[in-house]
Specification:
By secondary structure, this protein is mainly beta. It has one helix spanning about 105-110, and strands spanning about 1-5, 15-20, 25-30, 35-40, 60-65, 70-75, 80, 95, 100-105. The protein has one domain (about 1-110): 3-layer Sandwich (Rieske Iron-sulfur Protein). It is built from one helix and nine strands. It starts with a strand and ends in a 5-residue tail after the last helix. The structure holds FE2/S2 (inorganic) cluster.
Amino acid sequence: MITLCHIDEIEEGRSKGFEVLNKYLFAVKKDGRLHLYYNYCPHLGTPLEWQEDQFLDSDGALIQCSTHGALFLIENGQCILGPCKGKRLKAIPFVLGNGFMMVEEADVSTLGRL
Ligand code: FES
């Protein structure tokens, strides 16, 4: 297991990026629930964030790719607007233990192109 962060390090309605095994992931907390995705836009494979830890649109309602503005649902990663409409961000399974968010090494090391 690889520990990403304590759940309190991500505020409600905010996002946080991680580098794990040379792969990029990000988490979003919405309505008290955490969601974890591979930081890889299904359009061209670029990282999504605008700036460090900034993965959401201006009102924090959707995930937005900074390259061409594609919008994704926070709950399931589905692209609802933009050049990759209908595709999804890859969700990464995680577990919570003692307040920490953790991932299996194998779930990260096998990430490649979508
Ligand atoms: S690379 Fe993300 S919308 Fe084009």
